[in-house]
Structure formats: structure tokens, C-alpha cells
Fold this protein.
Amino acid sequence: MRPYQRILLKVSGEALAGPNLFGLDPERVRELAAEVAEVVRAGVQVGLVVGGGNFFRGVAAAAQSMDRVTGDHMGMLATVINALAFQDALERQGVPTRVMTAIQMHQVAEPYIRRRAIRHMEKGRAVIFAAGTSNPYFSTDTAATLRGLEIHAQVIAKATSVDGVYDKDPKKYPDAVKYSEVSYTEVLSKALGVMDASAVAMCRDNNMPIVVFNLRASGNIMRMAMGETIGTMIR
């Protein structure tokens, strides 16, 4: 068991909403920030991508009648709101944090520059990558994979509401079987749905491992960062 030196943590926007499933739950944001801060203090360099579902799901019905590009841009802006909230929570934990956005908004955050992001992490700062890739038709899973590859992370860590990858939805099927390890090809061929196919294919083509684990279990972020076997490893 060896700690990772640098990780890319992908967290859904809904994880910040707590039981409300919409907006921000301050206590939940604080709890998650405390866990991430502990990892940073342990010497692990952390990059984060936070989704925007806790805001955008609430307007998704209206967005269905909109142009797809417009709707995707709205979703990207939702990730910026979450990134700023998480930055504030991390800095209250004493962790210097930078938000870097793929859509330039200089008064709010730094523009994404790969080498600057790496330098921030080398200096012990957490870096939150917001606004996706700035391109429509790409999910935050794909954005997380792209950023993880660009910053030379050792793993893409996807935090979810279940404890790994199953052969079918464990919330619907009590006989679902959990994988401790599974190949990229199997994830794609069986359409296991843990991440977008484009994100999984990108990881496969670049030998980037993905660990899928349960965010709801306290301490799991640290366990994952320390290299413990939790959840499911895709490689």
C-alpha cells in the first residue's frame, strides 16, 4: 500500500447538496472539505473536478427546450458556483486553494493553464478545475479525465453514492455483483455506466487507472489517497 503522489478527484454536484439534492448544503460541503484538507495535509497533491448537477438538474426541464450548446454552457457555469463554494470551505480548513476555469472569468478565478496548475499543486495548493473543458457535448467525467491526464495524476478517483462498480444497478437489483477490479474493455462492452464511454476510452488509451468508491463513507477519500483497496479499480 503506497500513497498516491497526485490524484484527480471527481465529485458530483449532488454530493454537495446533501439530502436536499438541490443547491448547497453548507454542512455537507464543510464535511467534504475537511476530508480533502486532511489528504492535502498528508502530502498528496489534489486536483478536483466538481459537477454541477445540484444546480443544473433543477433547470434541466427548462433546458430541454433550449439549444444543446446553451444548456451545456449553463451546466458549466453551475460547476463554477460549486468550485467557488468548495474553495471557500477548503480555505476555512487552512488549505490554500485555486479555482481554474476553462471559460475565462478573470474577476472570479484563474484561467486554466496546465503548467500553472501543476505548479500550484507542487506548492501544496488544492486546485479545483471548473467549467468543464469549455466545450459543449462533453461531460464533467470527460473533463476530469482530461485534466487528470494533463496534470499527470496517478489515478482518476470517482467518488459516487455506491461502493464500487456492479454488473447492474445495485439500487434496483439486490443480486447485483460488485467488481473489485474490472478492465476498461469490460466496462465499455457491458455498458456498466460508471463513467461516460469517452472518459473510460480516454483512460484506456492512456493507461490511466480509475478508482470508483463510496463518498458517503467517512474517511474514504483518505483511504483511497493512501492507496488502500476500496471500491473498484478499473485498469
Q: What stands out?
A: Residues 68-92 form the longest helix (25 residues). The two ends are 17 Å apart (CA to CA).
